[in-house]
Design goal:
alpha+beta; six-stranded mixed beta sheet; 5 helices
Length: 285
């Protein structure tokens, strides 16, 4: 009995690809679960302001408690003129505000009616800046509503009201926040010098299907000179993709306009074409 050597070679290549694939998945997803406890801490934020709005289309009362804490990172410095220019631009999402979005809790309003409240925590210094300028206050309310909409698949009215005599609805609860940056509505801290010397790789973002509601976002990243996935560190965020090819070969940090499922995202590196393909199921856009 003879064995076709081409079949053995093909089977060995598939096995090697599977090993690389599994390793990259571990780098991408596994470390976040393994380090979950060390990457987070419990904080008790201070009340800030309470915003009343409505859910759509049901017109149910919703209260957003915007709280403050020094444990939440400070967003990048931005002037009033820069903020005006940002809000008038085609892509105002380029400026990210670090915040912690709490779980919904049921409360009772002044009319003894049931309602839903959410707690949003931002940096204390940034909150105080927002209190001094109506434009910044409107901005932090807007990004808070957008953050809640994206996380909980809500639709909230932009006809809101800031309650004058109430800083918080309900009781202040502790929140578990990440001490290491995870891309949700966050601006990461400046990278180390090694990333500054790395090249930005050529990449393509593909939406599938191309028409109608998107189901998958596929990133194809060309990494010439990268021999295997062992030198790659990939972080798939909810709306952000960060890739480092060590040592200081490539560095990619890109936001996209989609909310993706991190846990079900998969990545595969083809050592022949030296292309990394990341497939991310789209939750919403």
């Amino acid at each position: 009995m003879t064995t076709d050597s081409s079949l053995l070679s093909s089977e060995l290549e598939l096995q090697q690809q599977e090993e690389l694939y599994q390793q990259l998945l571990l780098q991408t997803m596994g470390k976040m679960q393994a380090e979950q406890n060390s990457d987070s801490k419990v904080i008790r934020p201070q009340p800030g302001m309470c915003v009343k709005t409505l859910s759509e289309p049901g017109q149910q009362k919703v209260f957003v408690n915007i709280c403050q804490s020094n444990s939440v990172p400070l967003p990048p410095e931005i002037s009033r003129d820069e903020l005006v220019e940002l809000l008038q631009s085609e892509d105002p999402s380029g400026y990210r505000v670090p915040m912690s979005l709490g779980e919904p809790h049921t409360e009772v309003d002044n009319n003894s009616q049931g309602c839903t409240a959410y707690d949003v925590v931002v940096n204390q210094e940034f909150f105080q800046k927002c209190q001094k300028d109506p434009l910044f206050q409107q901005f932090v309310i807007l990004v808070s509503l957008e953050g809640l909409e994206n996380k909980y698949d809500l639709e909230l009215s932009r006809d809101w009201k800031v309650l004058k005599n109430r800083k918080f609805l309900g009781s202040v609860s502790e929140q578990n926040i990440r001490t290491k940056s995870r891309p949700v509505i966050q601006e990461l801290q400046p990278q180390e010098n090694s990333s500054a010397t790395a090249k930005r790789p050529e990449f393509t973002l593909i939406v599938e299907p191309p028409a109608g509601d998107p189901e998958y976002l596929i990133a194809e990243i060309k990494l010439p000179g990268v021999p295997s996935s062992r030198s790659l560190v990939l972080d798939v965020g909810e709306d952000r993709l960060v890739l480092t090819a060590r040592p200081s070969l490539f560095y990619l940090d890109v936001f996209h306009g989609f909310l993706v499922d991190q846990e079900d995202s998969v990545a595969q590196f083809n050592s022949g074409t030296q292309i990394l393909t990341v497939t991310m199921p789209v939750v919403s856009s």
